[in-house]
C-alpha cells in the first residue's frame, strides 16, 4: 500500500483545531462586547423597570408578551448597539 493517511489526517486535525479555536476567540470577544453594554444606562434602566418578571412568568403568556413589549426598546438598543461594536 503506497498511501499513508496519517499525514493528511494530522493536517486535517490541526486545521479543525485552528478553526475551532478561531471560533472560540470570536465568541469570547463578542461576549466581552455584549457584557460591556448590558449595564449601560440605556439598557439597564429598561431592564430595571421590568424587573425579573420574565423569569417568573409563563413563556408566551399575555403577561410575558406585555413584559417583552416593555423590554423592546432596550432589546432593540442592545441588538443595534452590539452589532456595530
Describe this structure in words.
This protein has one domain (6-83). It contains 4 helices and no strands. The protein is mainly alpha-helical and 85 residues long. It has helices at 6-38, 41-50, 53-56, 62-83. Helix 2 (41-50) runs antiparallel to helix 4. It starts with 5 loop residues before the first helix and ends with a helix.
Question: Features of this protein?
Answer:
single chain; 85 residues; mainly alpha; 4 helices
Distance between the termini: 54 Å
**Which stretches of 5+ consecutive residues score pLDDT under 50?**
none
Q: How many beta-strand segments? A: 0
Average pLDDT, rounded to a whole number, is 84
How does the major sheet shape up?
none
Backbone shape: elongated
Q: What is the number of domains?
A: 1
Structural class based on helices, strands and sheet pairing: mainly alpha
Taking all Cα atoms into account, the compactness measure Rg is 22 Å
Number of H- or I-type helical stretches: 4
**Beta-strand fraction estimate:** under 5%
Secondary-structure element series: HHHH
Blueprint of the fold:
Elements: H1 6-38, H2 41-50, H3 53-56, H4 62-83
Amino acid at each position: 500500500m503506497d498511501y499513508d493517511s496519517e499525514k493528511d489526517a494530522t493536517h486535517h486535525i490541526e486545521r479543525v483545531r485552528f478553526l475551532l479555536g478561531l471560533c472560540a476567540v470570536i465568541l469570547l470577544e463578542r461576549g466581552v462586547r455584549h457584557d460591556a453594554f448590558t449595564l449601560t444606562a440605556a439598557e439597564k434602566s429598561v431592564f430595571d423597570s421590568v424587573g425579573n418578571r420574565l423569569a417568573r412568568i409563563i413563556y408566551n403568556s399575555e403577561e410575558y408578551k406585555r413584559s417583552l413589549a416593555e423590554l423592546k426598546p432596550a432589546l432593540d438598543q442592545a441588538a443595534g448597539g452590539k452589532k456595530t461594536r
